[in-house]
Structures are given as C-alpha cells and as structure tokens.
User: Which sequence fits this backbone?
C-alpha cells in the first residue's frame, strides 16, 4: 500500500459523518454476557422465541460474523475515506474513538439504523442498562466508515449496490466522548 493511501485516521475531522454498515448479529462480542443471560434465564438454545422473529435462539446467537472486506474496499476505491472502525468487543465506546484525535468525540443517532431483535432480547432478559448495551455489543452496526458528509450518499450507494444495509448513524464532533441520542 502506498503510504499516501493509508487510512490511519489522520484525516478524521469534526463534521465527518459516520456511515454504519449493518451487522449480521452479535458477531463475536459479548459472549461471556450472552452465556450468562442464557444460563440465568434457563433459555433453551433449541427453542423458538417470538421476540427473535420466531427463530431458534441458538441459530440467532451463532449467526456467522459478517466480513466486510470487499464492500469496504469498494468504498475506499471510490470515496475519500477518513477512518474505519470495526465494532467488536467494547462496542461503540471503545472502537470508534480509536480513529479520533484528541479533543474529538462522537454523536450517534440511535434510530438511524435497525437495532436487531437479538440485542433487545439480551437487554431485556439480561437486565442490561440500555446505554451499557452500546459499550458491550455492536447493536446492529458491524463497521463504521468516517468520511466527509458530501460523500455519504455515494458510500451508502456503493454499499447498497453490494447488498449491504448502510446509513449515516452519526458524526464526529469537537467535544470528547461518545454521546448516543
């Protein structure tokens, strides 16, 4: 990779938008808590739960992690990407800020994407505070791309053409911290 093509977060600036790409489910984060919730509630992994769109609990929890390489590379080829963050363990609070500079923060607009039923299920039965869910799980967003607002529609179009659900989920601010509205 040419040094000038590296995406190291150095271009991230206040006002950049965050395009979120939908996750396929829990992915591989928070499984210690998932196991505890399943055990504490005596859930049967082979049982269907209405809150999970009538799918087997085990099937929902073990939905394979989505890999975004091809889709993100296509965005990189066609847009000026400032930063990329994979939402893994630590959720929004620990992952996205890694692309920020000192003095920058995030505003996330809950409701700009679909929070998958599995996360509402885990929140309810695990009695996990709603805000804490964003610090543990991906909440339906598996990857975040930071870029100038003028390129958001183009990036979303590229992702949509590849079968991905994507939307603007927030923006970079000049105030430290992660705010979820």
Assistant:
């Amino acid at each position: 990779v040419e040094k000038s093509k590296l995406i190291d977060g150095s271009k991230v600036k206040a006002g950049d938008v965050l395009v979120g790409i939908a996750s396929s489910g829990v992915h591989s984060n928070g499984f210690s808590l998932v196991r505890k919730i399943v055990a504490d509630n005596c859930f049967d992994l082979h049982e269907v739960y209405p809150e999970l769109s009538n799918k087997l609990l085990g099937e929902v929890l073990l939905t394979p992690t989505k890999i975004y390489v091809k889709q993100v590379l296509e965005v990189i080829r066609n847009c000026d990407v400032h930063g990329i963050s994979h939402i893994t363990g630590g959720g929004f609070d620990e992952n996205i800020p890694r692309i920020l500079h000192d003095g920058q923060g995030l505003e996330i607009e809950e409701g700009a994407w679909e929070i998958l039923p599995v996360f509402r299920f885990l929140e309810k039965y695990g009695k996990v505070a709603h805000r804490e869910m964003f610090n543990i799980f991906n909440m339906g967003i598996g990857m975040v791309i930071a870029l100038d607002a003028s390129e958001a529609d183009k990036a979303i179009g590229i992702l949509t053409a590849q079968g991905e659900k994507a939307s603007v989920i927030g923006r970079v601010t000049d105030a430290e911290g992660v705010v979820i509205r």
Summary: The first strand starts at residue 17 and ends at 22. Residues 31-40 form the longest helix (10 residues). The radius of gyration is 17 Å. The mean pLDDT is 92.
